[in-house]
Design goal:
One of its GO terms (molecular function) is methyltransferase activity. The chain is of the alpha+beta class and about 160 residues long. It is built from three helices and seven strands, in the order H-E-E-E-E-H-E-E-E-H. The longest helix has 21 residues.
């Protein structure tokens, strides 16, 4: 796995703004989200939810962040559905090799649409400008969830 050390972890560098500046958005409970660099064309808006501090695996997640993870996952899932007009979402975690390539705990939140063929469609690289646009499109929907105080409320 890549990024065992927080100093070299690509997700820690994104969160710090060292690379891919302007793609992160605060969610809640110590978690941030940013668009996946690889996305399937019919699932535009695929986000990664990560702890703002370096946590390698689910087993390493402190108890106080574990509760925040569920709240943040709910808020991000509903914001993604709303922002990208999805009928549902797929939430996915890969824990350890071979599925987890980056050694920073992360949850995939993928917008779903009828006929999107998620399991069979190949991912494509999403340019930085497009990922920034995805973040800007998502942000007001997350803000609406925070304003209601209910992570499950749809704006």
């Amino acid at each position: 796995m890549h990024g065992q050390d927080p100093q070299t972890c690509i997700f820690c560098r994104v969160i710090a703004g060292d690379i891919d500046h302007d793609v992160c958005v605060a969610v809640s409970g110590g978690f941030v989200a940013f668009p996946a660099k690889q996305q399937r064309p019919r699932n535009h808006g695929h986000m990664l939810l990560v702890p703002a501090v370096h946590v390698t695996t689910l087993q390493d997640l402190p108890t106080d962040l574990a509760t925040g993870w569920l709240t943040a996952t709910t808020a991000l899932s509903n914001a993604v559905r709303s922002a990208f007009h999805a009928t549902g979402v797929t939430i996915r975690m890969n824990l350890g090799p071979p599925g987890q390539d980056i050694a920073h705990l992360h949850t995939h939140v993928i917008p779903r649409h009828p006929g999107d063929e998620l399991p069979t469609t190949r991912s494509q690289n999403v340019p930085l400008a497009d990922r920034i646009a995805i973040t800007h499109r998502l942000r007001p929907h997350l803000d609406a969830h925070r304003a209601t105080g209910d992570p499950g409320a749809l704006p």
